[in-house]
Amino acid sequence: MKVTLYYFSGTGNTQLICNSMKEEFKKANYSVNLIPIENAKPNLLPQADIYGIAFPIAIHTTYPFVRRFIEALPLNEAHSIFALSTMAGTRTGLFNYFLNLQKKRNFQILGLKNIRMPNNYFPKQIIVEENEKRIERGIESAEKFAQDIITREIFKYKKDFLSRLFNPVGNSKWLWTLIKKMYNFKIIEDKCQICQICIKECPTKNFELIENQVLRKNNCELCLRCLALCPNNAIQVNKKSYVIYKRNREQLMANFKEKVILTSSVIDYEHR
């Protein structure tokens, strides 16, 4: 069995969960292809038996660029999918979103899952012990979710009125425009080492290099990838510096370095 799992991870939570699910699938001799959403073309679906979609929750939904990607996927009655979200809170519009999409596309849903993970959205403090417990519980939940998909455990949906109420609001353009105005991102020049990681890794291409200076554009959707990956904490939000939980940052940096190595290998091969 082949699984293609599309994912976006802003601060590392979703990536940890996807890696755990991949290992669980491999135990059942499933082959798994993890594809970052920001690097994928939604109209080019690779051949697979199962398709997965994973992302962080933001405002009871997810980031607009993630939703645009999901809605551009050519899913139909021939496809079986599962979806999962990582979140800091307790409520999300994940179920309603995919069930509504299913009505339009008629694909089969193998499972939908919300997984609580550490809060990386401008935390006032980081409590390591509490975060570690959340991560371990999250990984256990992800492994169980993978097992349920493998054994075709019947998916059950519990209606949640508040999630149904918040989902359309969270998906509205005006709300995201308002939220972007509330958070003022600033690059601290004397800390910025022009490593260009933010330029390469921002999913909305919100950074550019002009005259040896990294500048922000107006494409930000507050995924916090730049804060999570900046090795020098050179990015401030509302005049405050934030530190992403160390374990998550290490995961993201390892993935970034792996992508750099793969890209460099392709470039070297193409120029031989």
Automatic annotation (TrEMBL):
InterPro entries with a match to the protein in the record: 4Fe4S_Fe-S-bd (IPR017896), 4Fe4S_Fe_S_CS (IPR017900), EFR1-like (IPR047964), Flavoprotein-like_sf (IPR029039), PSI_iron-sulfur_center (IPR050157)
Assigned keywords, A-Z: 4Fe-4S, Iron, Iron-sulfur, Metal-binding
PROSITE patterns: 4FE4S_FER_1, 4FE4S_FER_2
SUPFAM superfamilies recorded: 4Fe-4S ferredoxins, Flavoproteins
Superkingdom as given in the UniProt entry: Archaea
Keyword Membrane recorded: no
Residue ranges annotated for the 4Fe-4S ferredoxin-type domain, each copy included: 183-212, 214-240
Protein name listed in UniProt: 4Fe-4S ferredoxin-type domain-containing protein
Organism of this sequence: Candidatus Lokiarchaeum ossiferum
Lineage: Archaea, Promethearchaeati, Promethearchaeota, Promethearchaeia, Promethearchaeales
